[in-house]
Design goal:
Elements: H1 7-15, H2 20-26, H3 45-62, E1 70-74, H4 80-88, E2 93-98, H5 101-110, E3 118-123, E4 136-142, H6 151-161, E5 162-175, H7 180-187, H8 205-215, E6 217-224, H9 226-229, H10 231-242, H11 248-262, E7 266-275
Parallel strand pairs: 1-2, 1-4, 2-3, 4-5
Antiparallel strand pairs: 5-7, 6-7
Helix pairs in contact: 2-3
The structure holds S-adenosylmethionine (SAM).
């Protein structure tokens, strides 16, 4: 299995152009949404897209992104995060990196530089960053680190490419000790039929703290937003009925994430780290 084997992206890329509701919700950002308070009814596509934008905003805030910075977004998907930074700030040097060329092709068509910004798209593995030491102000990893071959290598690489005082910020699914046996079992789920591809959801907040210390970062933000992401699952149920796509693995894996999140066993966190 190659690092770029992600069946959910195969499905997305085959459906996006023919299904406006999918393009609206997962054609830019490909991550969960954030709601400050639970909506009174099931979110619609516009509301989900707004919630996905808010979640991304929390990650960029955690990295203290601002005008004129050189920012790398690893696992950049279709470029939604860099598109927002491109709209909001000027004189930025924005870099999107992804293991999957097809996603980069879509990102480069969708996002064009504005306000004196520059944009570069690079096909590479986040655990081997093609940038020189101390060359970046911020590194972002929005809902993608669980796909990387090794979090430790990624942290070492992020530390190397960041300037002193630079920030790494990410969002991730974290487990509580109670979920460990089920998470281990799920990791044995055959990758050949899995919908979300290779996912390592074995990390806890404590392991992140330890990894940060060992890699030379200080942890500056740890924010649990599990509760705020739950309406995502209501939206996904509605979306499933609007698409001509049936995949038992997609249903089983999403239901597992939903059940574990609603019972508090699986957490969703925003984490920020500063290079000391
Ligand atoms: C859930 S998507 C998130 C995409 C994007 N960050 C967003 O929020 O819209 C996970 C992303 O990680 C990318 N990815 C997976 N493994 C990777 C790796 N080893 N190096 C770089 N990107 C990777 C996938 O191709 C995909 O774009």
């Amino acid at each position: 299995m190659r690092l770029s084997d992600l069946p959910y992206f195969d499905a997305l890329l085959s459906l996006l152009d023919d299904h406006p509701v999918l393009a609206q919700t997962f054609g830019h950002h490909v991550h969960w949404g954030y709601w400050e308070t639970p909506p009174v009814r099931r979110p619609n596509a516009v509301e989900f897209a707004e919630a996905a934008e808010r979640l991304m905003g929390l990650v960029t805030e955690a990295a203290c992104v601002g005008e004129g910075m050189r920012v790398l977004d690893v696992g950049c998907g279709f470029g939604g995060t860099l598109a927002s930074l491109n709209e909001r700030y000027g004189s930025m040097d924005l870099r999107g990196l992804n293991i999957d060329l097809r996603q980069l092709a879509r990102a480069s068509r969708q996002v064009l530089p504005e306000s004196g910004n520059t944009l570069h798209w690079v096909n590479a593995d986040a655990c081997a960053l093609p940038y020189s030491d101390e060359s970046l102000d911020a590194v972002l990893a929005v809902e993608c680190i669980f796909h990387f071959p090794d979090r430790r290598r990624f942290f070492r690489e992020a530390w190397r490419v960041l300037k002193p005082g630079g920030r790494l910020a990410l969002s991730d699914f974290l487990i509580t000790p109670w979920l460990r046996p089920s998470a281990w079992l799920i990791s044995r789920w055959p990758k050949s039929i899995g919908f979300y591809g290779r996912c390592d959801v074995q990390f806890t907040y404590a392991r992140y703290r330890q990894l940060a210390r060992e890699s030379g970062f200080s942890t500056c933000l740890e924010r649990d937003i599990t509760r705020n992401t739950l309406p995502t699952y209501d939206f996904l149920h509605a979306l499933r009925h609007q698409l001509p796509y049936r995949n038992p693995s997609a249903a089983v894996e999403t239901l597992f994430a939903e059940y574990a999140s609603r019972t508090g066993l699986l957490r969703y966190g925003i984490l920020g780290f500063e290079k000391q």
